[in-house]
Amino acid sequence: MAIDWKGVFPAVTTKFGEDDQLDFPLFEKNLQFQLDAGVNGIILGGTLGESSVLSLEEKGTLVKFAVEKVAGKVPVILNIAEGATRDAIELARLAEEWGAKGLMMLPPMRYKSDHRETVEYFRATAKSTSLPIMIYNNPVDYKIEVTLEMFAELADLENIQAVKESTRDLTNVTRMRNLFGDRFKILCGVDTIAMEQLLMGADGWVAGLVCAFPAETVAIYKLTKTGRLAEALEIYRWFMPLLELDIHPKLVQYIKLAEERAGVGSEAVRAPRLTLIGEERERLISLIDGAIAKRPVLPEYHSIVV
After folding, report:
1. What is the CATH number of the domain that holds 196?
2. Helix 278-293, helix 251-262: angle, nearest 10
């Protein structure tokens, strides 16, 4: 399956049971919830997927399970967040073997690579696989920026096709377009500026709160891209207090709590993360439940073609 890098791509959470094992029934329930809303792909093992605490075996099981349940409706994409280039290459090989149709890639973990090292990390991995790749550019959280100059050096690699734009600099969408035209597809990577990035020409949205509110996320995307801005803005303004959960250090706990309150997930996280307690949890529940109580009535968006 070739990937059309546009639309809404949920960075799904990993579901755990009380025994800290993978909760496949709940994972399947959320996958179906996303598909029913009309998402365009599924991303596994990202920040929200708690990649750093998943074993290699668990990643493989998750990919194969998702591929089976999605049944070709949308591509399944695996995130690569490795410290060693050889480990990134091996995970890319395994992802293809497991049935993933694409990769999302962060720069090297734990070591702050320089320009040359960052480019070579992406280049070596891309050359090792036939899978299409979306580079995850998030210098705020991961401390390495994939600069415009780096993208220029990677442009000859045909399978590096897209960027998850998470620099939080809106002008970067325009800079990418000015320099590269449509060579790289651009997907919003920060929920709180997603509509703005779409208006500036981004092709899609790698979303977080979509995990709990997929219909609203897809509706905003489609309405914005087809010029129905007043309708999109009404939903976006309602959504903003929830979208701000995506830019907090505890985004995993916050978004999982939102999934639980929406009836499509649980609060369970894997240590060292801990579930929320006390005033913090009560404050979040009040915010989430208050938003759910005022959930907007969505226009019929499934038939909108972008």
Report:
1. 3.20.20.70
2. 50
pLDDT range class, residue 112, cuts 50, 70, 90: very high
**Assigned domain for 99 exists:** yes
- State mean pLDDT over 91-119: 97
Domain that holds residue 20: 7-213
Question: Is 249 part of any domain?
Answer: no
Determine the Cα–Cα distance for residues 9 and 2; give it in Å rounded to an integer: 15
Closest by CA to 32, choosing from 45, 15, 48, is 15
Residues flagged as binding site for pyruvate: 206
pTM of the predicted protein model: 0.97
Q: Could you tell me the pLDDT band of residue 179, with boundaries at 50, 70 and 90?
A: very high
- Whether residue 106 lies inside any domain: the answer is yes
246 assigned to some structural domain: no
Among the listed residues 15, 164, 185, 225, the single catalytic one is: 164
* Structure-block tokens of residue 232: 């999109």
Among 228, 129, 169, 259, residue whose Cα is nearest residue 268: 259
Q: Is the pLDDT of residue 233 over 90?
A: yes
Distance from C-alpha of 200 to C-alpha of 131, rounded to nearest angstrom: 28
Residue 164 known to be catalytic: yes
Residue among 252, 254, 210 at smallest CA distance from 33: 210
Q: What is the rounded distance in angstroms from the CA atom of residue 256 to the CA atom of residue 275?
A: 9
* Catalytic annotation, pick one of 136, 142, 221, 236: 136
| pLDDT value for 119 | 98
**Domain count of the fold of the chain:** 1
pLDDT tens digit sequence for 251-281? 999 999 999 999 999 999 999 999 999 999 9
